[in-house]
Write a structure and sequence with these properties.
Layout lengths: L4 E9 L5 H17 L2 E10 L11 H13 L4 E4 L5 H11 L2 E4 H12 L3 H15 L7 H5 L19 H31 L3 E7 L5 H9 L16 E6 L5 E6 L9 H7 L4 H4 L3 E7 L5 H14 L7 E6 L15 E3 L5 H18 L1 E8 L3 H10 L1 E8 L4 E8 L6 H4 L1
Parallel strand pairs: 1-2, 1-3, 3-4, 5-7, 5-8, 8-9, 9-10
Antiparallel strand pairs: 6-7, 11-13, 12-13
Helix pairs in contact: 1-4, 4-5, 5-7, 5-9
This protein binds guanosine-5'-triphosphate and magnesium ion.
The site of guanosine-5'-triphosphate (GTP) has 23 residues, from helix 8.
């Protein structure tokens, strides 16, 4: 394995800003750096209300960082905010060490983690779009693409560093993406026609989504104590306790201050969410900023126009909390998805929540109509069920989605 890069973080603090928020964003930058395989050696903070248009920070601070970097064999300096192309160039010239910003760091992590063809194409597109205005076109600038955090491309591909090639590659990726998106739409349409009930797990990065997804479906989705462990949505079939069949989708984690290029690129990855019938919102209740995380996720759900969907909030990692936990959201459940009993509790609670949204029915199905019976068991929530000897058939009660095609036969 390559040696880890030695990193310095740089942030700008404004007077009167929310202190807690500032520190959590710095801590997040540190986690992101570690996820990208860097080691944070030091953090520089400058109090400054206005960004210096040319160099972001003041001259004195930059000299201080430069001296530190030279004395401590620093490979990379990461700025907490997005830098303009001009700032990036000026700062790099002054510090004489490689410089990237928060966006580039996140893009780099995404590049490492993307798994599907579409995911890889989208990350590369976002990276190239970010890079293009930042290439000054001189040989020295281009050589900075040599390697390390912020320069890595998705999969086997290497990031291009020549403007003309980049433009051609961007066009090429867009063409390929539209083909992939069409395929995906077809597939989704087919799935909709089959009327499968779709549940999307959403939440801030590292909340425990994949852990729940794996335990609930007993599969092997990549779960790790890293930010953005999951980049491509994964969908699997799951049977709820009553027998209801749903399609469960694990999604990419949300984060505050996501680079704008990435929001656009990842919209289609999150389109699974807009297609969902139900949202499971996973929150790491043990995280000191969980309220802020919750808000970030709800805001993004609003932007995706998915905030009208029925939702269950799952407060996770309760094993790490000592005191009582008071939830903000309703309906909600407090769990540790490491505990198998809690997996079952979440599934029960999902059904309970759905039942409240759905319409109740009582019905009779003659013994010969086995197919109908099977369908009701899989597509509705059957709460009671017995065989009536006299009438020779099944007496059922349960709840069904208001738009389900079988509904009118039942009521
Ligand atoms: N202590 C504790 N750790 C948990 C719990 N649930 C998940 N974790 C850990 O939290 C880390 C993150 O879990 P993941 O399931 O990868 O989180 P995620 O939400 O899928 O994260 P992204 O894919 O990055 O968005 C892993 O190390 C899990 O083992 C829990 O209930 N208690
Ligand atoms: Mg995950």
């Amino acid at each position: 394995m390559a040696e880890k890069e030695q990193v310095v973080l740089v942030a700008r603090a404004e007077t009167g800003q929310d202190d807690k928020r500032f520190h959590s964003s710095l801590e997040e930058l540190q986690s992101l750096t570690e996820t990208a395989d860097g080691v944070v050696k030091n953090t520089f903070i400058q109090k400054r209300d206005r960004v210096h248009p040319a160099t972001y920070l003041g001259e004195g601070k930059l000299q201080e960082i430069k001296a530190y970097a030279a004395d401590n064999e620093i490979d990379l300096v990461i700025f907490n905010e997005e830098l303009s192309p001009g700032q990036l160039k000026n700062i790099t010239d002054r510090l004489e060490v490689r410089v990237i910003d928060r966006s580039q760091l996140i893009l780099d992590i995404f590049a490492q983690r993307a798994k599907t063809k579409e995911g890889k194409l989208q990350v590369e597109l976002a990276q190239l779009q970010y890079l293009l205005p930042r290439l000054a076109g001189k040989g020295t600038e281009l050589s900075r693409l040599g390697g390390g955090i912020g320069t890595r491309g998705p999969g086997e591909t290497k990031l291009e560093s020549d403007r003309r090639h980049i433009r051609r590659r961007i066009d090429d990726i867009k063409k390929r993406l539209s083909a992939v998106v069409k395929q995906r739409e077809q597939y989704r349409k087919r799935r909709k026609e089959n009327k499968a009930f779709q549940v999307a797990i959403v939440g801030y990065t590292n909340a425990g989504k994949s852990t729940f997804f794996n335990r609930a479906t007993e599969s092997e989705s990549f779960e790790e104590n890293l930010l953005f462990a999951t980049l491509d949505p994964l969908t699997r079939q799951l049977q709820l306790p009553s027998g209801l069949q749903v399609l469960l989708t694990d999604t990419v984690g949300f984060i505050q201050d996501l680079p704008t290029t990435l929001i656009a690129a990842f919209r289609s990855t999150l389109e699974e969410v807009t297609e969902a019938d139900f949202i499971l919102h996973m929150v790491d209740a043990s995280h000191p900023d969980h309220e802020q995380h919750e808000k970030t996720v709800l805001k993004l759900l609003g932007e995706l126009k998915a905030d009208h969907l029925p939702m269950l909030t799952v407060y996770n990692k309760i094993d790490l909390l000592s005191g009582d936990f008071i939830p903000n959201a309703f309906p909600s459940i407090t769990v540790s998805v490491h505990d198998p009993i809690d997996i079952k509790r979440i599934l029960d609670k999902m059904e309970e929540t759905l039942k409240k949204e759905w319409d109740n029915y009582h019905t009779f199905i003659p013994a010969g109509e086995g197919k109908q019976l099977q369908r009701l068991k899989e597509e509705s929530i059957v709460s009671s069920f017995h065989f009536d000897e006299e009438r020779e058939g099944y007496v059922l009660a349960g709840a069904i989605h208001p738009d389900h095609p079988m509904k009118h036969q039942l009521l």
